[in-house]
Design goal:
Number of strands: 52
Number of helices: 13
CATH architecture of the largest domain: Beta Barrel
Helix content: 10-25%
Distance between the termini: 76 Å
Mean pLDDT: 91
CATH class of the largest domain: Mainly Beta
Length: 969
């Protein structure tokens, strides 16, 4: 021990030196001449060096340090590197092993690969343009003081590197490991990969796991979100790369020199600790710079994206100023924005952010959404980079907090409502708008009402479906912080965030740490608040139960209680405000005059799943629209606190009409419509009712009744309807016209089955007489395929069973079964073979039950032809891209024609009644084009279909041309 103390004394003196002037002043005071002081200094240096070799005393700041010398091979898309890691044990006990995350080494099992392609539809991108690729991070050797150490790669996903130390490292002691490794970069969209001439490198090197009082946090990799938890660290990176590559980086550039062979070497360092060190590289990058006080904002972009690059710099500066003012100063001198092929909108990393290249091609009316994306990722410099947290188990702590701060920023900038769309005049009359705050809770409300919500806290992998992380940790999570502000008051809450930022700067915080700070600023017990909102799936819902004269009764219908503000209007225009603390499920208030109006939670402070019961009289919002279309039946575009009446002209098949609806958002749609069909000169009227979340599940009940009156007296008028009960079998669909897994029971009268958007049942080959016909049926859809909408792997299965009988005035009697099975198989990097088989069997041989001719069957034959009581159909398609990255943008990037695909197809099938004869099979073949279209850049992806088909060996059939949306199957 004495030897160690003696060795540390000169190092301690050396590290305490203020500056040379001060040292000289001390020496003069001690009457020591300069020559003697130089001798002392030399001796000190010798002792310091000896101490360094023997013990490696702890760094003064205690942060891990990474010194990496790396070489990028652009041809092989690989990196070879020598990494020196200095680690200090800040744990209470001695340790004999170190753990590192090696994320690029992730090994995916079959189930994970299948779901990656399925979930890719959420991002409207094919994550692997050349087929699925895994990267590999090879560890060649690990050395400590010239001694090679034993190491192993830990299961289950091969992303944990375990290094065995030759001794026990005590608290406060440090080691310096040298790691030689190389890593391959996959051709893939995302945080780590390359596409075209852009490379994104995120956590590309062995990164120390976090060691704290709980031990090592060796979390598995999770692809669909950030599973990261890392200590703030300092970095020095020396990188050799081609001279033409422009580099976007964490830290700052300290030196650059040109090498032989068209290479250059750059040195990068962090000024202050960061959570990681990321890079983005491309020879095509250009840059716009902007000074934001003492901070240099660098906005990189690709040719043609100058407008949004400039806006990105402006928005980053706006958010940096806002966050610095309200939460704490940005502690670095630079901040960079890098466009990469990311798939999702954006991703945070230290001192820089990744933004998807598609974002730079948003329509101009989505400029505020662009601000949202830039500012969200910029805000993570506070809540992720400076203040770290456990993103695998407690992602709410940075995502929920950052989402709250982002809403505050947007509302301070664009007004209290902060609407998302900044529409031009030619669209403002047509498209409804919505607010950022409403959009943040839209998905959560759906989940809560349908019984598929879960607690906010939990490991990322415990979420059944990845998009629910955004609904809960982000959307609901932001509102939890808003409600905490409501409980504490604006000033106290502001002080909570300022203290949280300053106290945990360059440290890791937990939910418990945040709760303790919040508790210091109130005398209320916050334990119940945090437990209810974070650890349960309980909901909050207040309702006006009764208003009778001067008597008001309020009911607490939820399982979570919050202080409730009540605004009451009395006679003589008096306004009374009360704040209630609910102790019972019902609270009664007596006033001195009759009640004229009541508003619960008038400032909309509480996250309730039903706001329509918060007003007396019930709030009704009526709106006439220039064109009634599907958006007006999406709850996001409605007033959640009111019953909405929407009325306007509508477009119908071969006609024009008028439609009006009464809607309770997320609950009930009641609509009436009328339209005139110009083809058959008929007046069609109808009533539709859809009730959602029956019994608190993803279950909907619908009623539809119609009447068709024909001008021609020789044509019989038609009346009928349908009733259906649908159960969704998966939490979410990943495309606007993609079918979610579901089971539907239905009853039809004089009508063919027509599904609702997002749950369309496949009935294209069924024949409906639609006169004096009553049918009971069921259909099921199951699919495990992707990526949407251009399926390249997986399968789908559809089955329909129907029975017609003599009930409800029906005159037909039959049963039938139709089953369809489709598979998709990639055969090389770009091409796909798709195959399907349809089989139909009916219980009455003399009936026309199936029709195979048409766009969804035998494409070489007339629509609704080739009839029988049984049917068999086989279709094969070969799909290959002939033009990629077409880049045709129309209407300010609202429509972007991206790729063109050529499809060759062959159909063979037959429908028959009575005996089966193989020679009756019909055959056709043809070619088709698929135009891949992006809607508003990255919001939706559709396929426009053009098929030309010709019957084989059937000269009586004309060539057929079919138009449609999406692939045939």
């Amino acid at each position: 021990m004495m030897r160690e103390i003696l060795l540390l004394i000169p190092y301690f003196i050396w590290t305490l030196r203020p500056n040379s002037v001060f040292l000289e002043h001390i020496l003069l005071k001690m009457k020591i001449d300069i020559r003697h002081s130089l001798k002392i200094l030399i001796i000190t240096l010798i002792y310091f060096t000896l101490g360094l070799f023997v013990l490696h005393p702890a760094r003064a700041d205690g942060y891990p340090h990474y010194d990496i010398q790396a070489r990028l091979d652009i041809e092989k898309h690989s990196i070879s590197a020598h990494e020196v890691v200095t680690f200090t044990n800040n744990y209470e006990k001695g340790i004999t092993e170190l753990y590192f995350h090696i994320y690029p080494n992730k090994k995916f099992n079959k189930k994970e690969k299948e779901f990656i392609y399925q979930f890719a539809g959420y991002f409207k991108a094919n994550l692997f343009p050349d087929g699925f690729q895994e990267s590999v991070l090879n560890i060649h050797n690990i050395v400590l003081n010239q001694r090679r150490l034993d190491f192993s790669i830990e299961d289950p996903d091969a992303t944990i590197l375990r290094v065995k130390l030759p001794f026990s490292l005590k608290k406060g002691e440090s080691v310096k490991l040298e790691i030689d490794f190389d890593v391959t970069i996959p051709h893939a969209y995302g945080r780590f990969g390359w596409h075209k001439d852009i490379i994104s490198l995120h956590r590309w090197y062995p990164l120390l796991s976090v060691l704290d009082d709980e031990g090592w946090h060796n979390y598995p990799f999770y692809l669909f979100h950030q599973p990261y938890f890392s200590d703030a660290s300092t970095y020095k990176i020396d990188l050799t790369l081609p001279q033409d590559l422009v580099i976007v980086h964490s830290g700052v550039l300290t030196s650059r020199k040109t090498l032989d062979g068209g290479l250059k070497e750059i040195s990068l360092e962090t000024q202050r600790p960061t959570r990681d060190f990321s890079l983005a590289l491309s020879p095509s990058y250009k840059v716009i710079t902007k000074r934001c006080g003492n901070i240099l904002v660098k906005s990189f972009y690709l040719q043609g994206d100058e407008f949004y690059a400039e806006q990105a710099a402006n928005f980053a500066c706006d958010s940096i100023n806002y966050y610095s003012k309200h939460y704490g100063e940005y502690p670095y001198s630079e901040f960079s924005i890098a466009p990469v092929y990311l798939a999702c909108g954006g991703h945070e990393t230290s001192n820089m952010i990744f933004i998807d290249t598609r974002v730079y091609r948003l329509p101009k009316f989505l400029i505020r959404y662009f601000d949202f994306l830039i500012s969200h990722e910029t805000g993570h410099q506070w809540w992720f980079n400076v203040v770290g947290s456990d993103e695998y188990r407690q992602t709410w702590l940075d995502e929920g907090l950052n989402s709250y701060c982002l809403l505050s920023y947007l509302e301070s900038k664009y007004g209290d409502k902060a609407e998302v769309l900044e529409l031009p005049r030619f669209l403002d009359w047509l498209i409804p708008n919505f607010t950022f705050r409403d959009s943040s809770i839209f998905r959560y409300i759906y989940m809560a009402k349908n019984g598929i919500a879960r607690p906010i806290l939990g490991t990322l992998s415990s979420f059944k479906e990845p998009s629910s992380i955004f609904a809960l940790a982000y959307g609901k999570g932001a509102q939890v912080f808003s409600m905490l502000r409501y409980l504490l008051g604006d000033e106290a809450f502001s002080r909570v965030l300022s203290r949280y930022y300053s106290e945990f700067k360059f440290k890791n915080a937990s939910v418990e740490d945040f709760k303790k700070i919040a508790q210091d600023f109130t005398d209320k017990d916050l334990d119940v608040f945090f437990k209810q909102w974070l650890e349960t799936d309980n909901v909050c819902d207040y309702a006006i139960a009764k208003v009778e004269g001067n008597r008001l009764i309020i009911e607490d219908k939820g399982a979570i209680s919050m202080p409730l503000e009540v605004k009451v209007g009395l006679e003589n225009n008096r306004i009374i405000r009360r704040k209630l603390e609910f102790k019972d499920k019902r609270e009664e208030i007596i006033f001195d005059a009759d009640i004229k109006s009541v508003q619960l939670d008038p400032e909309n402070r509480i996250l309730e799943i039903d706001k329509t019961n918060n007003s007396y009289p019930t709030k009704v919002k009526a709106k006439f629209v220039p064109l009634y279309f599907f958006a007006y039946e999406i709850p996001l575009f409605l007033d959640r606190g009111a019953l909405n009446i929407i009325t306007g002209p509508s477009l119908a098949s071969n006609g024009l009409g008028l439609k009006s609806s009464l809607q309770k958002p997320d609950d009930l749609v009641f609509s009436v419509s009328g339209n005139f069909n110009f083809d058959d000169e008929s007046l069609n009227t109808g009533v539709d009712i859809i009730k959602e979340h029956i019994a608190g599940r993803q279950r909907s009940l619908g009623f539809s009744f119609f009447n068709e009156d024909y001008h021609d007296d020789d044509v019989e008028d038609l009346r009928g309807g349908k009733i259906f009960l649908r159960q969704q079998l998966w939490p979410a669909a990943y495309g606007m016209i993609d079918n979610n897994d579901h089971l539907t029971l239905y009853l039809l009268r004089n009508q063919q089955w027509k599904g609702s958007p997002g749950s369309a049942e496949r009935i294209d080959n069924l024949y409906y007489r639609k006169y004096e016909e009553a049918i009971f049926g069921s259909t099921i859809h199951i699919a495990r395929r992707g990526p949407y909408p251009d399926f390249s792997r997986g399968f789908s299965f559809d089955s329909t069973v129907e029975s017609a009988g003599h009930f409800l005035g029906g005159e037909e009697s039959f049963w039938r079964l139709l089953q369809e099975f489709a598979v998709y198989k990639p055969i090389n990097k770009k091409d796909v073979i798709a195959a399907r088989i349809k089989f139909g069997w009916g219980g009455s041989a003399d009936k026309r039950l199936f029709q195979l001719g048409g766009f969804d069957g035998l494409r070489g034959y007339q629509n609704k032809s080739i009839e029988g009581s049984r049917c068999l159909l086989l279709s094969l398609e070969y799909r290959l891209f002939i033009i990629e990255d077409l880049g045709i943008a129309l209407f300010d990037n609202i429509i972007n024609i991206d790729d063109i695909q050529l499809v060759s197809f062959f159909d063979v099938g037959k429908a028959w009644s009575g005996n089966y004869r193989s020679k009756d099979f019909k055959k056709d073949a043809g070619l088709g084009l698929r135009f891949h279209v992006d809607i508003a850049s990255l919001f939706e992806r559709l396929i426009l279909r053009l098929d030309v088909a010709e019957a084989i060996n059937d000269p009586d059939q004309d060539r057929r041309v079919w138009l449609g949306i999406s692939h045939t199957f």
